[in-house]
Each structure stands twice: as structure tokens, then as C-alpha cells.
## 1
Amino acid sequence: MANQDFIAFIHQKLKPGGYFHFATDGEDYALWVLRLMANDLRLRRIDAFNIDRAPTKFAQTGIKAGRKIWDLVL
């Protein structure tokens, strides 16, 4: 799926006032997604610090490896 197709898919699935939550332990990947989404004027970034959720097994693996978990909410 191309970048623009992915963004269109997200918009199609979001309800008015809804949000897209993206989490990864890859800093480069997180920054790439943030830049990709920032170019779409229909989305706005919500600063989401201290997200209250249980870490997934993938997040736990990243944390154990010393990587930061990046939570992006748009």
C-alpha cells in the first residue's frame, strides 16, 4: 500500500473526532511516520505523553532491549 493510500485508508476508517494511535520502538520509523502524517492537513498531532496503557509484548521486547517506545497520536 502506497503512503497516500495508507493515509486515505486511515481517514476512511476514522470517525469525526477520532484519533490514530501509532506506537513503535523504532525512532527512525516513528519520525518518518510523523513527517508523512504532518504533510496531510486533515490530521493534527495530539501531544500524548504518559499514555496509560499496558505495554504490548512487542513494546516489552523493545524496552528490554533499551529502546524507547514512541507513541504518536493524530
## 2
Amino acid sequence: MSQADGTPSPPRGRHARTVLKIVLAGVVLGMLWLGGRRAWRDYSAYEQQQRASEDSVPIGYAGLNFRRSYNDRPAQFHHERDGRKLLWAALGEGNKPEFYDVTDATFDVRSLSGGYGRDSIPGVDYPIFESRGSERGQRLRDRQEIYGLALGEGPRAYPADLLRKIEVVNDRDGTTPFVIVFDGGADTARIYERRLKDGEVTFGTTGYTLPTSPDGTTGKPLLYDRKSKSLWLPEDRALVCVSGELKGTKLPTRPSAEKTTWSEWVARHPRTLALMGNDRSKPIPSE
């Protein structure tokens, strides 16, 4: 059969076979695409399970147990006595309740959450640092998030998961004291000076959190200093005393820690030390 210009027309059978081949090729490619997606999902799920399994292996940080138990939360945290407003602090000697005087506090005391008691979250007073070759150091995972500081005494790494648990690390670079505060509301580690005109201060946790989100799921830790028992809140530019004897005092920030991974930090600082715990054989500082 010829076309209008006199050239022969392609056989109908050949045309049908061509169409069939195209359809079959499309079906095969579609199956390969669907199978590939399924295989990728299965691989991704397997990889996530492997990572979860790795992350569940404890590193074995030292000295993170509670120093004392202050978990007998009272039914009421706020009290008034002789015209003063009080906030429950802890059970002292002989289970006698202790309080913070928050009469002149510059924050909304009644918005606080928590109330597990002073030092119920065990901050670090005497940091234990170890090299990457130590038993615990070798358990740090390559992708593990850390906060790195290049100090005069050498580089140090502070594991993010550890900071989230303990919230406060009292540390020093030579003779210069500083404190690391993990701000859960901002999900970051802040570094502050901790030297006053007449000496230095050490910080502990009150067990309270000041919410920073409407639903109260995030917040910043309310701290206290060991000597005056004044209350402090971390801010962007300073650690601010918001209640107590030192109210109004501001301790300035130091250069920020670098948030990175353990492998990346070690690649640049092979002789780094890493925070691995707290020496609980020493007593809580009194000031």
C-alpha cells in the first residue's frame, strides 16, 4: 500500500509492534522506579534502625547521678510569709523546707515549671576531661554533636547530649573561670564569665525552667549561685541575676562555642579533650 506521495506505507504490524515495545518499556521503567523507591525506603529504614541502635549504646559519662534526692516535690511551690514572696527551693537538713526570696524577682515566678529541687539536675562542678583515645572517648560517635572551644589551655569538646542533661558546667581556662549553660529554649550552649569584683561564683540548677514557648515545651533553666543563693537566667548577651542579693548583676558572654560533629572537630583538633563527666568525690562548692 502506497502513501499519497507514492512511497510505500510502513506495515501495520510493524507499527503495532513498535507501540507495544514502547508500552512495555514504560511498564518496565515504572516497575523499576517503584521497586527502586521501595528499596530506598527499606534501606533508609534499615539505616535509621542501625543509627538508633548505635545511639542507644551508653557512652558511660562519669558522675552524673544525683548528689542528693530532692524529688519530694511539694504540692505548693509559692508561699507568702511576713509580706515576702517565697519559692520552694529544696529539702534541707532534717527535711526542713528551704526557700528563695522572690519578692523583688524580675520574672514571672508563677510561670515556672519543674520544681524538683536544688541540684536535682546534677550540674558539673569539677569537670572530667578525657582524650579521644580513652575508653569513654572511643565511644563518642563520629556524627555526635559537640560544642567546641579553642581555649588557651587547648581545645575542648562538650557533647551536646551531655549538656542537655546537666545544663550547667562550671569550668575554667587557666585562671579564668567561666560557665557553660545549655539554654533549652534556644537549643544552644551559652558561655559566660563567672568572675565578680570580689571573687568568682559557681552555679547550680534550681530544678525550675522558665517557659519560652506558648505551650511550655521549651524553656531556659533558672540557675542559682552557690554563695548568695541568688537566681539567674541566661540571656543572649549576659547571664542576668533576676532575684536575690546580687539582683541586677550581669555576667558577660564569652566567645560562643562552635557547634559541630565530633569527627569534624577531631579532624581539626586531634589533641582535643572531651567532657566526660563530673568528679562526684568532691563536695558541692559552697560559693
